[in-house]
């Protein structure tokens, strides 16, 4: 019979033997958890881009279809209307898809945050959860719409509307969705584009 069945733990806690990093979760030597890393990444994203959660509207123009529901100019029209109301517009999606992401920014007359390619997959759900509205082309996985539905974020899916739906009609619906969010509120309209990180260098 072993005299001390807990000797490995006793040795680990001995003053003469340093603790192995991560042995005790609350130890300052422990590496940060995935949740802590995700929180840090998200907080850094919010701070760097000046994201204002209470008036954030996400535009996701990426499409899984060969013929997207809307052109970039149509997204830009709705985004401009909401920006003029004082909502903060952020364009998300894949950076290498300039016709669907940068194309919207380029067609806008008001400011927008260009977050395409800047949001890590692990932080995207946090951004969607904090948004007051998501406007997206389609709901085909892995569209952000699935995340919005799971989190209860108000959303509008354009390919669920007739193709001849006017931008004014979608803007009106967006305003109706935003009016139902208790903690959301518009601010002062922007007048200048805010550059992406790679443009600011």
UniProtKB/TrEMBL annotation:
<protein>
    <submittedName>
        <fullName>Glycosyl transferase</fullName>
    </submittedName>
</protein>
<dbReference type="GO" id="GO:0008713">
    <property type="term" value="F:ADP-heptose-lipopolysaccharide heptosyltransferase activity"/>
</dbReference>
<dbReference type="InterPro" id="IPR051199">
    <property type="entry name" value="LPS_LOS_Heptosyltrfase"/>
</dbReference>
<dbReference type="GO" id="GO:0005829">
    <property type="term" value="C:cytosol"/>
</dbReference>
<keyword id="KW-0328">Glycosyltransferase</keyword>
<dbReference type="GO" id="GO:0009244">
    <property type="term" value="P:lipopolysaccharide core region biosynthetic process"/>
</dbReference>
<dbReference type="Pfam" id="PF01075">
    <property type="entry name" value="Glyco_transf_9"/>
</dbReference>
<keyword id="KW-0808">Transferase</keyword>
<dbReference type="InterPro" id="IPR002201">
    <property type="entry name" value="Glyco_trans_9"/>
</dbReference>
């Amino acid at each position: 019979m072993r005299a001390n069945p807990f000797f490995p733990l006793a040795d680990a806690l001995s003053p003469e033997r340093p603790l192995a990093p991560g042995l005790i979760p609350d130890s300052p030597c422990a590496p940060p958890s995935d949740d802590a890393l995700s929180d840090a990444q998200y907080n850094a994203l919010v701070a760097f881009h000046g994201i204002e959660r209470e008036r954030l509207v996400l535009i996701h123009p990426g499409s899984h279809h060969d013929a997207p529901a809307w052109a970039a100019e149509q997204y830009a029209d709705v985004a401009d209307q909401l920006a003029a109301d004082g909502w903060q517009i952020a364009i998300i999606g894949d950076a290498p898809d300039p016709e669907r992401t940068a194309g919207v920014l380029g067609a806008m007359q008001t400011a927008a945050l260009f977050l395409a390619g800047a949001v890590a997959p692990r932080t995207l759900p946090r951004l969607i959860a904090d948004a007051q509205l998501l406007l997206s082309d389609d709901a085909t996985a892995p569209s952000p719409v699935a995340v919005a539905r799971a989190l209860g974020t108000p959303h509008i899916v354009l390919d669920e509307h007739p193709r001849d739906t006017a931008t004014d009609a979608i803007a009106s619906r967006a305003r109706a969705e935003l009016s139902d969010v208790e903690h959301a509120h518009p601010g002062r309209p922007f007048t200048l584009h805010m550059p992406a990180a790679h443009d600011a260098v």
